[in-house]
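Cross-posting from the chemistry board since nobody answered there.

I work mostly on the small-molecule side, so proteins are not my area. We synthesized thiamine diphosphate and want a rough idea of how it might sit in this target. Sequence and SMILES are below. Is it possible to get a predicted 3D structure of the two together?
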Amino acid sequence: MTDRTGKQGSLAASVGLYDDDLVQMYRYVALARALDERMWILNRAGRIPFVISGQGHEGAQVGITWPLERHQDWIAPFYRSIATCLTFGMEARDILTAQYATALDPSSGGRQMPGHYGSHEHNIVSVSSPVATQLLHAVGIALAAKIRGTGQVALTTMGEGSSNQGDVHEGLNFAAIHKLPFVFVVENNGYAISVPAARQLAVADVADRAAGYGIPGVIVDGSDVLACYAASREAIERARSGDGPTLIEAKVTRLTAHSSDDQQTKYRSAEELAAERERDPLPLFRSQLEEAGVLTEEIATRLAAEIKLAVDDATDVAEAQVDPDPATAMRFVYAEDDGR
Ligand SMILES: Cc1ncc(C[n+]2csc(CCOP(=O)(O)OP(=O)(O)O)c2C)c(N)n1
Ligand SMILES: [Mg+2]
């Protein structure tokens, strides 16, 4: 995704990127946030039934997705992966039509639950409701890539709570034994709904578990977009060159309640919530790019206008699209022509 002819200031050079990459990365973080904020408004206005938010995770998602090859590699994401899906090719319209469950929603034509994004066109596996099953899907894709010798990498993402599911042990063990081109990303936001990490894990870091599979376990500050990028690039290179999987644990913050059906002030103190705001990747990345002279006022103003236009357009399109025809509800469940 890098423009190899562009300007390269010292910040971009420090991570082997160009200034334009950094601006584009910032654009995805900001677009994901703006779409997410719009979703909450639409939910509270009674237009969409359910929001499960990526706010606080966007920096890690953009940084980690960036080194993957579009239309070549695969991602099996989870419900918070709005920025991941955008970075890998989905559009603002695709996200909101999924939220409205319209007939033309590319994720599933309105068949999936809200927040269950997917894109055949962009190699994004449809989100599964039972958490952690996506790891098995991604490991299967990685196995196929190895057998076929395609050079593809499969990456999956999930929360730290989901990482305790049995599927993770089975899939990770298999991927490690067979040195599959696979990257396992845990976006650790410290909670599984209302359950704090200390009640989910007996260890401080999910990354510690990597040793049990004989693979590297890397901890990265999920508010630091470029640190996430560097960790991901290394893991992807390792996977592609045949050295097997890596576990990346990105320590992120969950800025919203678990979902629009949750109220986090019931289980998190005002002090804790205020401290979390300090780790918001959006203003942190913006300041970093401003200080490096990459994000000028002119560029920031242009991006803000573009993003507002994209979010308004996505809302208008999703509002205008029709619902799926109930007669098609069983399509893709059973064979089309067997009389059922
Ligand atoms: C197998 C399974 N068990 C429980 C649930 C209900 N559930 C949905 S999200 C969630 C919390 C997951 O927490 P975590 O993995 O930390 O991700 P986060 O939501 O914090 O990003 C639970 C328990 C589910 N969807 N699937
Ligand atoms: Mg969590």
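Reply from a structural biologist on the board:
Welcome over. Reading the output above for you: The pocket of thiamine diphosphate (ligand 1) is lined by residues 80, 129-131, 158-162, 189, 191-193, 258 (CB under 6 Å). The first helix runs from residue 10 to 14. Happy to explain the token format if needed.
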